[in-house]
Automatic annotation (TrEMBL):
Protein encoded by which gene: MCSU3
Domain Aminotransferase class V positions: 41-176, 242-487
Signal peptide from the UniProt entry: none
Superkingdom, natural source: Eukaryota
Alphabetical list of Gene3D superfamilies matching this protein: Type I PLP-dependent aspartate aminotransferase-like (Major domain) (3.40.640.10)
SUPFAM superfamilies, per database record: PLP-dependent transferases
Protein name: Molybdenum cofactor sulfurase
InterPro entries registered for this protein in UniProt: Aminotrans_V_dom (IPR000192), PyrdxlP-dep_Trfase (IPR015424), PyrdxlP-dep_Trfase_major (IPR015421)
Species per Swiss-Prot/TrEMBL record: Dendrobium catenatum
Positions in coiled-coil regions: none
Amino acid sequence: MEGAKEDFLRRFGDDYGYPNALKNIDEMRSTEFKRLEGLAYLDHAGATLYSEAQLEAIFRDLSTKVYGNPHSQSDSSQATSDVISEARQQVLTYFNASPKDYKCLFTSGVTGALKLVGETFPWSSESCYMYTLENHNSVLGIREYALDLGATVLAVDIEEVEHLRSPKQSIHILKHSTQRRSEANSPREIQNGKCSGNSYNLFAFPSECNFSGKKFPLELVNIIKGYAGSRIGDSLQCRGSWLVLIDAAKGCATEPPDLARYPADFVTCSFYKMFGYPTGLGVLIVRNEAARLLNKKYFSGGTVSASIADIDFVKKRENIEQLFEDGTVSFLDIASIRHGFHIINRLTVLSIARHTASLATYTRNKMLELKHGNGLKLCLLYGRTVEKANPSNVGPTITFNLKRSDGSWFGYREVEKLASLSSIQLRTGCFCNPGACAKFLGLSHLDLLSNLEDGHVCWDDADVLHGKPTGAVRISFGYMSTFEDAEVSRLLLSTS
Ligand SMILES: *Cc1c(COP(=O)(O)O)cnc(C)c1O
């Protein structure tokens, strides 16, 4: 491994590690991630890890302060309110969002934030919900609210065309996939291309795809918002305004969208994807103007100014945070996030991006070189830009399947079992991203339906069906990943 590390450092030494931090990467690993001794954890896209120093700081904080319910008037309540507003500010700063234009709402995670947008968005039969094919199930699920109110729903594939000067022209929306929705097991065609009128439309895309690591161009925000009343693609004409949602769940660990440059209306992220702890806490960052359009139905403790129990009278709060955060926010978790931000800000998110990209680029290149004795390539990597992987368009994620020397597929469950024998923890399947999975694996609607009929469901062992993989293997790096983690996974592949 020594020679390999020297080669790696010669090529990536400027990006690898944190030369300006108090501890170098190896010291950080041996003192703050002692529990990783002897194992290679490579599922940071699933959940990254908290450092032991971070947990100690949280423990000291919670065990020396008195945090009361933020809805009371006591000093302990004030302490909680202060820590919550500090946390909101810290989140807005991380996304370069001006507090004049944006609010940070705490949610139960990205899924909670997306569900809130779906539930409260001003859908009408004239609206359109358009999203990129490559999206997490939690983004796709918003379409249930849109469809219920008769809106048009479209999945689109976005192709970037480089070398074109005008950003408006440089992104082509390739196709409209007709959406289907099963009702009593009979798929129903959803008509497309009919939205009109003065309505609100929503476009959703991930800043980074959790399947392939592809980074979507954030210019999409300005392009789509500029579409008011004009044609998109060939057939769709939507009047009204477009609002844009960025699912930054995966991207926010290494490249938080800059909301001053790309003023999206909604951005979602979860803290366990950034610094491992706490889980079950995320944010919806919402533009003030967009928040005013949302119809919040439910009221609860915290969201009302007054209500009368036995008649239909309720006065909801006007303050945006208070209106949308039902009940008591998870204030001890919120008090914990500054200890995570402390690490990210100390290392700097730019260094984290470079560090993780160095590992991913090295591993990707090495995997592409792996060949069987007969010359057949061992790894098929997914993602458009893989050959010239450039950290600015692909995140620290590598998704692939392996082939045997006779060209048949090596199932992903086999890879997972082999990996776990070597104490390598990675992720397999479709990663809750059915659109990306079908696109990269070349699975048609018919393939997907017949696999389901054969009993294949998410998370089972049926890794190859009808001669095609049903999912893939994913390796992903985090800020504390090391060269040794990357090398261990490469060695595993070269022996399989
Ligand atoms: C993890 C993830 C989600 C889901 O986030 P939760 O906080 O677990 O709800 C959604 N989208 C992407 C791209 C993700 O990576």
